[in-house]
Amino acid sequence: MNEYMLDIEPAYFTPAEYDRLLVTLHNQKASDITIQSGENAIADIQGLLYRVTVRKFTQQEVSDFINHIYGPNATAQVQSGTDLDTSYQLTVGGEIFRYRVNITACQFQNYNGLQVTLRTITADPPMLKEMGLTNILNESLKVPQGIAVISGATGSGKSTLLASLVANFLEQPESHLKVLTYESPIEYIYDNIIKPSSIVSQSEIPKHLPSFAAGVRNALRRKPGLILVGEARDKPTLEAVIEAALTGHPVYTTVHSNGVIDTFRRMVNLFTAEERQARLYDLIETVRVIIWQALVISKNGNRIPIREYLVITDEVKDRLYKASTDNMTVVLKEILANLGRPLINDIKEKLSLGIINEPSVRKYLFN
Fold first, then answer.
1. Among 146, 185, 144, 145, CA closest to 163
2. Helix axes of 328-339 and 314-321: crossing angle, nearest 10 degrees
């Protein structure tokens, strides 16, 4: 038996017993927890996986947990071939515990089993000053209208940076903003943020609305002051984001990508070949800043961001307008090198300051 196993294990895991398990593992600093039909509970603690229950879960136990988290039809949805992304929150002794949740069907004894993956997240967003933004980025992210794009791979801190931005806007007495967010799932909440002049409404996709594109259309009917779209992942969403920006709204969104250049290319390539040149011009007109980031281990053992970015100034626009979809990548490389901040510059600065070691960023040095 390992040190992380429960002291007392119930004969059947009810939702209340699952909550007790989650709190226990939170206190043991588990970052990810897996609950699966026919398996022990698995916890990721400091990067290592541990079995934390003696008994393996039955299909019914996992089904009860899923329906408790998502609603009475969750199991049926998952077993029909739809994975679910959501969040889960519980309060114990006045302390809030929040999790990002994925629910997926899997093979189990010749029929559809279930797997629940829970990632620990902080309920309250971090302060913007903790994000390590340069002065240029701080200013460029105050978008009165247009699109601000935060990009990176899964787990690169995109949602955390967006949440800290939203919290910062809400805290300002002079903001006077109606903030509408559309997220999948809702990770951070703003209940504890003092909002002198602003209000925030968070909707989860697909629980509250069917898609991000539907979310943006919904926002335009609600007189928003700021729109946050969790991910511009498809053509309808990006079309809606562009429309919102062209009609004078600030829109903050994320894109999964491998750099600033790849971010722009991916957005353009969401459209058909016939549409791309026109949509390239729309993006040049509406995008205000693109930030790409990754998280690496610093010398003191904490995860910190490394970033590259491009602020779309008038000079950048002029150069981009001369590009076509065929030579866009070449033009963007030149622009990023001369008018933006390539990733290698940020890495070299952090290495010279002794914040990071070369092994932690080696894979980015050869991209």
1. 185
2. 160
The per-residue pLDDT for range 5-32, each reduced to its tens digit, is 666 789 999 999 999 999 999 888 898 9
Tell me which residue of 56, 62, 154, 147 sits closest to 104, measured CA to CA. 62
Q: Which of 320, 331, 305 is nearest to 137 (CA)?
A: 305
Dihedral Cα 14, 188, 260, 338, nearest 10 deg: -150
Distance CA 152, CA 165 (A): 17
CATH level 2 (architecture), domain 15-121: 2-Layer Sandwich (3.30)
CA distance 306 to 304: 7
Q: Where are the domains of the chain?
A: 15-121, 128-365
pLDDT range class, residue 3, cuts 50, 70, 90: low
3-state secondary structure 62-96: HHHHHHHHHCCCHHHHHHCCCCEEEEEEEEECCEE
In three-state secondary structure terms, 129 is: helix
**pLDDT tens-digit series, residues 256-281:** 999 999 999 999 999 999 999 999 99
Share the mean pLDDT of the chain.
Answer: 91
Task: Give the fold, CATH level 3, of 128-365.
Answer: Rossmann fold (3.40.50)
Do β-strands 42-45 and 30-36 pair in parallel, antiparallel, or remain unpaired? antiparallel
Q: What is the token pair recorded at 291?
A: 């930030």
Alpha-carbon distance of 242 to 309, in angstroms, equals 20
